[in-house]
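User: Assemble these into one structure.

Assistant: Restating your components, then the assembled model:
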Amino acid sequence: MNGGAAGGLRNALTVAGVELRLFLRDRSNIFFVFVFPLLLVLMIGAQFGDSATAGRVAVAGADGGLRTQLVAELEDEDVVVSDPEWDAALELLARGRLDVAVRVSEAASAAHDAGEPVVLEVVRGSAATAQVVEQQVRTATEAVRSSRGQVLALTDRGVPADRAAAALDTAREGVEPPDLEVTNVDELSQQFEGLGQFDLGASGQLLLFTFLACLSGSATLIQARRLGVVARMLAGPVSTAQLIAGQTLGRWAIGLFQGAYIMVATSVLFGVSWGNLAPSLLVLAVFSLVAAGAAILLGTLLGNEGAASGAGVGLGLVLAALGGSMLPRELFPDTMRTVSNVTPHAWAYEAFAEIQRRGGGLVDVLPQLGVLAGMATVLLLLGAWSLRRSLARAM
Amino acid sequence: MTTVPSAHDVLVVDSLVRRFGDLTAVDGVSFRIAPGETYGLLGPNGAGKTTTISMIAGLIAADSGTVKVAGQRMTPATTEPRRHLGLVPQELAIYPELSARENLTLFGRLQGLSGKALSARVEEVLELIGLADRAKSLSKEYSGGMKRRLNIGIGLLHQPTLLILDEPTVGVDPQSRNQILESVEALSADGMAVLYTTHYMEEAERLCDRIGIIDTGRLQAEGTRDELIRLTGGVDTIRLSGSGDLAAAAERLRALEGVERVEADRRTATLTVRDAPVLVASVVGTVAGSGVTLADVEISRPDLESVFLHLTGKALRD
Ligand SMILES: Nc1ncnc2c1ncn2[C@@H]1O[C@H](COP(=O)(O)OP(=O)(O)OP(=O)(O)O)[C@@H](O)[C@H]1O
Ligand SMILES: [Mg+2]
């Protein structure tokens, strides 16, 4: 007899096994699970952290000698220099379209002309190459300051400014340039610190695809109900609880598999760092459980497979976008960022950020894990209740 | 062979009622099935056969009445009696994306079979349902009849005490149908009790030890084929035609033991008799003795169709 806990577990595992088998047998899933996520990681990696050979620097702010000379120095170094507004520059930076942004304030410009100490605000982007470009900016500013120092030294001695510059080649030494402070002040830049080129895209895609892979299972649950195999299982010695456990387990395993695959593939192919592995996997596991619960709920609330697939993809994309899997949450306006907390994606995203960027461990992500576990519990209870209800109706 | 209610009955259905809104789909149905017996539920579309079976299999709750399988109460909440049941649903209940072998293995495992016993039993059933050579193909690639056979195979994998078949031959070609009927006969010969629903009276006549006639949710009558036929009056008809004076022979025919009525004119006579196959010889002898040369003798016996017509005033199928 199939009674007892062992029999129950066996039944649940058998049901889960079928779900997995059916999932892998569906050819279209092969593309969506194995190929598509990597393509997107690659695309987003290219967008967010272009490994273009030339550095890209925005020099924003007051026109004047300092700005002009800095631009000239940078262009000599083959750096691509642009001239956006400061806010725009920050956004470009966050999107990975820039490596470094420099703000030349009125005060700095005036101080430069007067030969006084200058403070320039410099923000470095997230791409791996940004560090190199920042160094280029440093060198360029020093060159500007040093030549300014020499010009000042000459004009102090009565040489007209235009001739002073020309005379510099012969009088390069003996002048101490004024100090230059490059500050790396922006919070944004700190947010993305520690991220490799593909890292940001990878964690977002992991969440997006894990959730989608689970939700796509809601269609197979509807199919199983429609085909009568669910009724047939229940006519045998399989309890509703075992059936629900098996369905959930199957969904969960699919999500886990999808997530783990993206982790392994992106780290091997793109060198993505997933940080501390144990907490990363735990976040994935709990997140998948949330997705599994959502899939069961969807698969029982909706009556036909087409609707479920459509709703699954729609919901998967909307939640992912809202949760920062497409555009990083750091770039959201404040209200949006608050709203996005309703999505499991946002919490998992934060947990991954903690682990990937700041070397966080289990303790650091406990709050996020707690919220995700709560979401999973609620969804699974609702799903179980709804499946039981739909089964009573289906016969 | 009317069965006496026994404590060992595999199935006891008592006063089952099930309503769907205003419709009473099953209205006080009671019957029993003894071990090894094949019981047929014969009734037209919408009679309440599937609803009755769903309650027996514990898939839906009865509004009132009880079901006992192997002596245990069956409700949607109980699991224990289920292992005695094998259910073959009217609608195919198989995974189209799995092969016959995979389908059988899956449901066998859920029935508690495992290891060598499971794989041996799966091969055995594949043979029985004639799918051994197609066991590896996905079932969505099977013909309608093959799918039906797989649907049946899943139900009998775990060698249940009672196999329930809900219209297993609907939409099946004659060859597959015959194969299905033969395997039911074989299972019954092996001692499995069978509950078989159908609206084909030939199937009920061929397979079933006892038959319940169901219509509009009520069991109209129940018994062996012969018992049911007796309900119609239980009389056969012999039709004679020939040359010579049949009307003149009528008086001598009426005198025969077992002949109830004779209508005759010169060329034809119609006899209402108790047991035509037994009587026909003496009828023919009597007529010949009256100087009539017979051209044709036709016997007709009532069938379940006439029983149904007699009971409900409707034809079993339209
Ligand atoms: N879930 C349901 N909801 C509403 N009415 C139902 C439901 N199931 C069955 N019925 C109704 O109950 C009656 C009996 O249906 P049932 O399926 O038991 O008939 P059946 O004898 O199996 O017919 P068939 O030979 O066509 O399979 C029908 O009138 C049917 O419409
Ligand atoms: Mg039916």
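Chain A has a mean pLDDT of 79.
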